[in-house]
Specification:
The protein contains 18 helices and 51 strands. It has 971 residues and is α+β, with helices and mostly antiparallel strands. Strand 45 and strand 46 form a beta hairpin. Helix 8 packs across helix 12. The N terminus is likely disordered.
Length: 971
């Protein structure tokens, strides 16, 4: 890989010092030097670092750094700017963006700039930036082959007044608030009591609350709130396992690594050193022989194991709301008494804990906007303090709390937390997924403290407040912007409490109409959400989402979703307090909505479900772009489920800091195709070419544009065919044009390997970037196909099949889940390949006349026509782009899609829209409009001339000017 970088620094700026003297800030020009910084970024990224020196130490307080950046290449993925005080080896200010665009840059010290710029998260020294003598610029590339070339100019320091933050001042009296004031209202408590008396499921849920309270009720408070600081990011010093390695043993006194079994405290792991984390503050630590990395920053080789042990004990307090629930529903005073004891211990401990992010420690939150007191990231504070607030809200009227108790808890716990969060805007945290937890925590505490203005100005209407955040980060169909079930869950779950609290303050419910119901359309036949991108294996659709969607929007469809998620005679924590009566029976027609093939437009996914077995079979094709850092390097990758379980699988997500993250994100870890050993470009843009189906056949085809340099065609077409016996056959036809070699990777589920098999390294491009470093070749079969039970790949000219051993670990929560440990890689030489795969059928390639491909499997022929008037294969002529024939008779043919534009929205006509058709004006029986620009997918209920009637639950948020494509789908 070749890099160059042109820095043209016009290094002159006028800056007025505090005394009014004018001075010139001169950046000395130095040659640009490329170096690969160890541990920086994901595999495949390369970094160049350049340091610019100031003429002399300069005071950056109340000032901003500005510069212009031009000609940004598409393959830039990262730009970081750091500032160093004279004599310091660590920066005191740092900014980073993963969205590099040309234009003018302005960075403020002390206060994080607006997106896309963020403060650097770790590796900062808490120093006043009053003697800055050098600036460091680091450039990252996503691994494309083109040189990195750009220009940075007009670097200057300018006056910039920093507005102080309005903090929540300590009070000398408890807040005058009517409780309960948070998410559970008095009416909800009364409803819960009625439900317990009427329904067995509600009584069972109360018993569940008691069971969840048992540990908190049994243990001494010191084992729930330890008298010592806590930290949550400590790798295993022995094996290097990530920050999820250590769990609390059954005796509650030890940590054990889930990977290598080492324990702490033990002779093997001891804390024999201390480290001065802040002036005069020393913490015990174990000094290891390896460094820990968080993202692209080293956090050193000091392991604070006692702090981690305290953290694991403290995690028990996360269930404190359960004894509060029991007290609220039963009046049993002993539960309220224990809640009070734990809250007082938490209020005593919380201010004594240091602010920290991972293993960097800070005196104030101003120097690191991710710093918190309950682990190493303020997300942990937000989640736990919101829980404490709920427990306090439900027990404070028990008569057990003195005025001094209330004052201590409100000042030292809730106000202290609020001030940590509001020191910055909510989205100053580089992890946007954490914003909902911050907003919810602040709203809960503000409600307890009677600070309604804080709810209005910060939580609801502030920059990245609730209204702004939802509009920015959820698509119009309700899907989370990162296309990840796990990070969608992290973002959406805190909103359950928030919408209940804000709902009584007049927040428009249309803001969240779809976000709780949207994931319900994605549930796979095994009952879990698809592990695409950074999504944990076995991430499930939360029943609370379905309960909330139906309570706030009681439509027939949301009722059908609820009854698919929660049995009619069952309930969740949410439903105990908010379900008014027994559920009515669902509308069968609405139930069919979740059983049909669909476009998940916000994710750029198509899910095929055969009409005869939609509950047990599904195929998901991800044809989208590369939207964010939680995406994986895969192009047109797919998952296939049949007979209720995964057949062709995806690894999903084991955690950001997991040792196998490089494997998870790599292209070879997916059912996809790579060209010439490259990783896909981040600038790639997928396009859905076709979807359609009938009772016997479902089809999807998509194009992966700009995926690889020199790759002119990358199209994947998948046929899902149902036979007379009800069994399903999957046939894949993939065409690639361009490059020199193509590699198709296939991951069948449940494939074991023979013990003691000899292995050799697998070679494909940059092994660290493509994932080849994690693969071992078991055997190589030149010019052969694959016959592996249900999986078949016929031979092709120049084809070589590799059977490989790959990492077996699937799920960080289930370390023993080693059912998947083998894969196939099919390499095809030359710049043109037409790949064929069959599952539960034996596809036979057919010679074709014309531009296309066709295969025969049993009585069936599937054909794809790429261009031209017709395609001839197997004695038949095919005139449609996608066709399936059986015994010479066509049983499926594609209808032309329709392109158009929304001219006007007709709200007075019950969500009808006026459209202008640009191409193929007839829509036949189309079931969907697919909107471009990832805006949403809507079902067409009817058409009257140029007016379309749309499904109300799906098509709520269309706008005039939207362009669309409509596909003809049955049902």
């Amino acid at each position: 890989m070749r890099f160059s970088l042109m820095f043209a620094l016009a290094a002159l700026a006028v800056w007025t010092a505090a005394g009014g003297d004018a001075g010139r800030i001169v950046f000395e020009r130095v040659p640009f030097e490329l170096k690969l910084a160890p541990g920086e970024g994901n595999p495949g990224n390369k970094f160049g670092v350049n340091v610019f020196k100031l003429a002399g130490p300069t005071d950056f307080r109340d000032s901003a750094i500005e510069f212009d950046i031009a000609s940004v290449p598409k393959n830039w993925s990262y730009l970081r700017v750091r500032f160093y005080n004279a004599g310091s080896d660590m920066p005191c200010l740092g900014f980073v963006t993963w969205s590099v665009r040309p234009g003018h840059v302005r960075l403020l010290p002390y206060r994080a700039a607006r997106q896309p710029w963020y403060w650097q998260t770790v590796g900062l020294r808490e120093e006043v930036p009053d003697r800055i003598d050098r600036m460091e610029i680091a450039v990252g590339s996503a691994g494309d082959a083109e040189p990195v070339a750009s220009e940075i100019s007009n670097v200057m320091l300018v006056p910039a007044k920093v507005e102080p933050t309005a903090f929540s001042a300590p009070s000398d009296a408890p807040a005058a608030v009517e409780h309960p004031a948070c998410d559970i209202a008095a009416a909800d408590i009364e409803r819960g009591r009625v439900n317990i008396a009427k329904f067995k499921w509600a009584a069972d849920r109360l018993e569940f609350f008691c069971e969840q309270s048992a540990e908190i009720m049994r243990l001494p408070v010191s084992e729930i709130i330890p008298d010592g600081d806590v930290i949550d990011c400590v790798y295993c010093p022995k094996c290097g396992g990530g920050d999820d390695s250590f769990f609390l043993t059954a005796d509650g006194e030890h940590l054990e690594c889930r990977y290598c079994g080492v324990e702490f405290p033990s002779a093997e792991l001891a804390e024999e050193s201390t480290f001065e984390v802040l002036p005069g503050v020393f913490y015990p630590c174990h000094v290891g022989d390896r460094e820990m990395f968080v993202g692209d920053d080293s956090v050193g080789n000091r392991y604070y194991l006692t702090l981690l042990l305290n953290n694991r004990k403290f995690q028990r307090s996360f269930k404190l709301h359960y004894p509060a629930y029991v007290y609220a529903l039963t009046g049993d005073i002993k539960y309220a008494a224990r809640v009070r004891e734990v809250l007082l211990a938490a209020a005593d401990r919380y201010p004594k804990n240091l602010l920290k992010f991972r293993t960097s420690f800070y005196q104030t939150p101003l120097f690191n906007y991710m710093a918190g007191r309950l682990g190493g990231w303020k997300f942990g504070d937000s989640v736990r303090v919101a829980n404490f607030a709920a427990a306090y809200d439900l027990t404070v009227n028990s008569g057990l709390y003195s005025e001094a108790d209330r004052l201590k808890i409100e000042n030292d716990l809730f106000r202290e937390f609020v001030n940590i969060i509001i020191a910055h805007r909510p989205n100053a945290d580089v992890t946007s997924n954490a914003v909902p937890a911050h907003l919810t925590g602040v709203a809960m505490c503000a409600a307890l403290l009677g600070e309604d203005r804080l709810i209005e100005d910060y939580v609801v209407n502030g920059e990245s407040g609730f209204a702004d955040f939802v509009r920015r980060n959820y698509r119009r169909d309700g899907t989370w912007t990162e296309n990840s079930a796990s990070y969608a869950e992290m973002s959406t779950t805190p909103f359950i409490k928030l919408v209940e609290l804000l709902g009584r303050r007049g927040v428009d419910p249309e803001l969240y109409r779809h976000i709780f119901s949207a994931p319900g359309r994605q549930v796979m036949p095994d009952g879990f959400l698809p592990p695409v991108n950074d999504s944990n294996y076995r991430e499930y659709y939360r029943p609370e989402y379905a309960e909330l969607a139906y309570r706030h929007f009681p439509t027939p469809r949301n009722l059908a979703l609820l009854l698919r998620t929660v049995a009619p005679d069952a309930g969740s924590d949410y439903s105990l307090f908010r379900r008014d009566a027994a559920l009515p029976p669902p509308d069968p027609a609405q139930n069919l909505f979740f059983d049909r093939s669909t476009v998940i437009a916000g994710c750029d996914w198509t899910i095929l479900r055969p009409e005869r077995s939609p509950r047990s079979t599904a195929l998901l094709l991800d044809w989208g772009s590369y939207p964010n850092g939680h995406s994986h390097f895969s192009v047109l990758n797919y998952l296939y489920y049949d007979r209720g379980r995964e057949q062709l699988f995806d690894y999903g997500y084991l955690g950001w800091a997991h040792p196998l993250r490089g494997w998870q994100v790599s292209p070879l870890a997916h059912n996809t195709v790579t060209v010439d050993g490259r990783i896909p470009a981040v600038s790639r843009q997928g396009r859905l070419e076709y979807m359609g189906g009938n009772l016997d056949v479902q089809v999807v085809s998509a194009e992966g544009a700009n995926a690889y340099p020199g790759c002119s065609t990358l199209r994947r077409t998948l046929f899902l065919v149902t036979g007379d016996d009800g069994g399903n056959m999957l046939v894949e036809l993939t065409r690639v044009r361009g490059g020199s070699e193509h590699l198709y990777t296939v991951h069948p589920a449940g494939r074991g390997l023979e013990p003691g098999a000899e292995t050799t390294p697998f070679e494909w491009g940059d092994p660290a970037s493509t994932g080849a470093k994690y693969m071992k070749t078991l055997d190589v079969s030149p010019d052969s196909g694959i016959d592996d039970g249900e999986l078949f790949v016929p031979c092709a000219s120049g084809q070589t099949v590799y059977r490989c051993e790959v990492p077996a670990l699937r799920d960080r929560r289930r370390p023993d889940g080693r059912e998947v440990c083998g894969m196939y890689a099919v390499k095809i030489a030359g710049g043109a390949s037409d790949f064929v795969l069959g599952f539960n059928c034996r596809p036979e390639r057919l010679a074709v006349i014309g531009d296309g491909a066709a295969v025969k499997f049993g009585e069936y022929v599937a054909a794809v026509k790429y261009s031209g008037v017709r395609l001839s294969a197997g004695g038949m002529d095919f005139y449609d782009d996608y066709t399936v024939a059986r015994n010479g008779e066509v049983i499926f043919r594609s209808a032309p899609d329709t392109e158009g534009r929304v001219v006007d929205i007709l709200p007075e006509k019950d969500h009808k829209i006026l459209v202008d058709f640009n191409k193929n004006g007839d829509i036949f029986n189309s079931a969907y409009i697919f909107f471009d620009r990832r805006a949403g997918a809507c079902r067409i209920l009817g058409r009257d001339g140029g007016v379309l009637e749309l499904d109300d639950d799906e098509g709520k948020f269309m706008r005039s000017g939207d362009t669309f494509r409509a596909f003809n789908v049955s049902k």
